[in-house]
Specification:
Number of helices: 23
Shape: globular
CATH architecture of the largest domain: Alpha-Beta Complex
Strand content: 15-25%
Largest sheet: 6 strands, mixed
CATH class of the largest domain: Alpha Beta
Number of domains: 3
Structural class: alpha/beta
CATH topology of the largest domain: Spore Coat Polysaccharide Biosynthesis Protein SpsA, Chain A
Strand order of the largest sheet: 3-2-1-4-9-6
Helix content: 25-40%
Radius of gyration: 37 Å
Number of strands: 27
């Protein structure tokens, strides 16, 4: 009994820490069971209650009365479509849409239509295009008749008739036909209307798209129903996509049955008669504010709250008034932004004081990310020193160069801004003027922007006229602004790539490896890529080609490949030259291929693979962009491993090497783009062919194409170490690049230091 009591006591002592948990679980389960029984009883009472069912709310559809969403909600209900393939039917590849946005059924937010005329196309319409058109995602101009010359940068649709009602009818038809399935909102305005683009875009983001909306400045019909309203066209109006889809079948009836002089009244009457929807000026707490300009109005003197809150201003009589309105509203918007920034900075200061770091946790400027903190000395961002005349960190690596171009404008602007900020802070007690920039430092911090530190020699003048010269250090920051996604043309991975491989006598030892890798990664995988070999003969070898062909072994390898792959043909082109200039070689290749050919200019050390070829296709865009990849160059294994096991079995294959930024041997570009740039180059050099020897393809596209040059590291291009032979007949710059590529490709600094240390130890012993 004593043993049993001891065991019971030990068990209770072990159970004591878990006792509150067990009690809580028991209590929770009991309460949940009681609640379930009450809910079940209440539900039975409601279900068994006698009497007719309660009528649905006024205006609610029958489905909503039964607890199901109405027909307007069906677009937002998730649906799982099970996959099923009939085994009796042959399999067909599923055709996917170009963009995931199309496949998911997303719509763009806002489309803007501007109604203009032949008389005002070159005046008011141009003013609209220069002020607010670039702020809207999509904007088109609609007119009855067009002039012989359309202003630059305007997308114009002419309907062929100047009658106002016909213009409105054709415009609605055109919008529905071409954009009805792509946009959620449609904003219609006249060219004598100034619309605040940012305010209009903010308005549609706060409105639900699942409603029939006819929003604008509501006006009464002359002699019509007191309850019916139409939206005044001079102040613009907003139509939802659902309303446009419902209105389109009735447009022909409206054109034949409704008589009106004003197109906005005609459209309003059409919407009211066939859809029963009247114009409203506010919806879901959002107001459509407008302002009517009086004659001889001075926008700079308008300080009324109604003017500052207006989304649309009408009538705008001339171009100058449009520009003045845009300037005034831009100033108002800028003041609002600055005030909002100040309010946010004050809130940040107040909240930071409550954090563990206290006021010391406030970064400068308030609200901007803190400076980047390096984790090692290799991550330290260096400062660039400059004066008003010179820059001491030059792009070409020289220690000193003249300050010019964008850098000079940047320095001048930042000095003016520094003096302006000092005067704003110390006036009226002191007024500063710049004497000289003593020292200037700048660096780009990717987490926040461009940082500046200036040592300024200033002259400070007091209110009494006394002046004093003093030196003052100021710090400034040009923060990173809103990131924009640059629209790019659509490209696919199905484009055929024409690989061009120039070969010299010095490259013969590496051709076999190149052909083996090309066959394994492209021919075996049936990748859409072709190969053309370019045999570059020295004049001496070209004379003896009948007796001894230095490229006979390569031609035999090509023959073996063509036998192994019967459907593959690998052509070659023979060239005789002492200076194998990239431009001269591509002149020969370009003439033998169609203009839409995508070239990849390779080197014999390149190991082509499918991953890189796809990036070549995606990063090269005809008439838009060329791609110059930076390949990864492995270091000399004799210096890196010194007899130890190589890193071939290591998963980190990009460890013992570097990206060779001095090499421009690889390039992806379209033949049409090369031919265009080459034509401009020929007109510039005027048959001075010796100039071509000092240029490579990168220089040609940089100076004569006007295209985007995409230069990026390419981990898919890995080259084994080899000592390149640098042709002294090339230009000094090209030869210097080749030498630097060889030197920097030997090994890293740590590897070179270890090799020197071991050599010194061996010499000392």
């Amino acid at each position: 009994a004593v043993a049993a009591a001891m065991r019971l006591g030990a068990f209770l002592s072990a159970l004591r820490p878990a006792l509150p948990l067990l009690l809580g679980l028991s209590l929770g389960c009991s309460l949940s069971l009681l609640r379930a029984s009450w809910s079940h009883s209440a539900a039975e009472e409601r279900c068994l209650a006698p009497g007719p069912p309660a009528p649905p709310a006024r205006g609610a559809p029958p489905e909503a009365a039964e607890g199901r969403p109405g027909p307007g909600h069906e677009d937002f209900r998730p649906r799982i479509v099970p996959y099923y393939r009939d085994p009796n039917k042959p399999y067909k590849k599923v055709l996917r849409t170009r963009y995931i946005q199309t496949e998911l059924g997303f719509h763009e937010r806002l489309f803007v239509a501007v109604l203009t005329s032949k008389a005002t196309l070159n005046t008011l319409a141009v003013a609209v295009n220069k002020t607010v058109a670039h702020l809207f995602p999509r904007l088109l101009y609609f007119t009855g008749l067009r002039s012989a010359k359309v202003p630059h940068g305007m997308v114009l649709v002419a309907h062929g008739d100047e009658r106002p009602i016909w213009l409105m009818y054709e415009t609605m038809n055109y919008i529905h036909q071409h954009f009805g399935s792509d946009y959620d909102w449609f904003y219609v305005m006249q060219d004598d209307t100034y619309a605040q683009a940012e305010q209009v875009k903010a308005l549609v983001t706060h409105l639900s798209i699942n409603q029939d909306v006819y929003l604008g400045r509501a006006e009464e019909f002359i002699g019509g129903d007191e309850q019916a309203r139409y939206c005044h066209g001079g102040f613009g109006y907003l139509l939802s996509r659902s309303l446009l889809l419902k209105l389109h079948p009735h447009l022909d009836s409206c054109r034949n049955e409704i008589l009106s002089v004003r197109p906005d009244e005609w459209l309003g009457r059409c919407i009211i008669d066939f859809l029963g929807i009247t114009c409203i000026s506010q919806l879901q707490g959002q107001h459509y504010h407008t302002y009517e300009l009086a004659k001889n109005t001075e926008p700079e003197k308008e300080e009324e709250e109604e003017f500052q809150a207006a989304l649309a201003v009408h009538p705008v009589s001339d171009m100058t008034l449009m520009y003045r309105l845009h300037k005034q509203f831009s100033r108002i918007q800028l003041d609002r932004v600055y005030q909002e920034i100040q309010d946010l900075q004050m809130q940040i200061r107040n909240l930071t004081a409550l954090t563990p770091a206290g006021e010391a946790g406030v970064t400068w400027p308030v609200g901007i990310n803190a400076p980047f903190l390096p984790k090692s000395r290799f991550e330290v961002i260096s400062w660039d020193y400059f004066t008003e005349q010179h820059l001491f960190s030059c792009p070409d690596g020289s220690p000193k160069c003249e300050l010019s171009g964008a850098s000079k404008a940047d320095v001048s602007e930042i000095i003016e801004s520094a003096v302006e900020q000092l005067n704003r802070r110390y006036q009226p007690l002191l007024r500063f003027s710049k004497r000289q920039l003593l020292n200037g430092y700048r660096r780009f911090d990717p987490t926040r922007g461009m940082e500046y530190t200036l040592d300024l020699l200033l002259e400070a003048a007091t209110q009494k006229g006394h002046s004093h010269v003093l030196a003052k250090r100021v710090s400034l920051l040009r923060p990173l602004s809103k990131v924009e996604i640059i629209p790019m043309p659509y490209v696919t991975e199905a484009t055929r790539v024409q690989v061009v491989l120039p070969l010299t006598v010095q490259d013969l030892d590496f051709v076999a490896n190149f052909l083996d890798m090309f066959a394994m990664n492209t021919l075996d995988t049936h990748d859409n890529a072709l190969l053309t070999l370019l045999f570059i003969y020295h004049p001496y070898d070209a004379q003896r080609v009948g007796q001894v062909d230095v490229f006979a072994g390569v031609k035999a390898m090509v023959g073996e490949l063509e036998k192994r792959y019967a459907e593959v043909k690998i052509p070659w082109i023979s060239v005789k030259t002492e200076v194998p200039s990239q431009v001269k070689l591509m002149d020969i290749v370009s003439k033998k291929h169609p203009v839409d050919t995508l070239f990849f200019l390779a080197s014999v050390w390149t190991e082509i693979n499918m991953e890189f070829l796809n990036r070549c296709r995606m990063n090269t865009i005809s008439n838009w962009q060329v791609f110059f990849p930076v390949h990864f160059q492995e270091f000399n294994p004799a210096l890196v491993y010194r007899g130890e096991q190589t890193a071939s079995s290591n998963t980190d294959f990009l460890r013992d090497g570097h990206f060779d930024r001095h090499s421009f041997a690889e390039a992806c570009f379209y033949n049409s783009d090369y031919m265009t740039a080459r034509t401009k180059l020929a007109a510039d050099i005027l048959d001075r062919d010796e100039v071509l020897e000092s240029m490579d393809l990168f220089d040609v596209f940089l100076h004569y194409s006007g295209l985007h040059l995409f230069r990026a590291v390419e981990p898919g291009l890995v080259q084994k170490y080899t000592l390149r032979s640098c042709n002294p007949r090339l230009s000094e710059e090209l030869y210097h690049r080749c030498v630097l590529s060889n030197l920097e490709g030997l090994a890293s600094r740590s590897h070179l230091a270890m090799a020197l240390f071991e050599q010194e130890q061996a010499n000392s012993t």
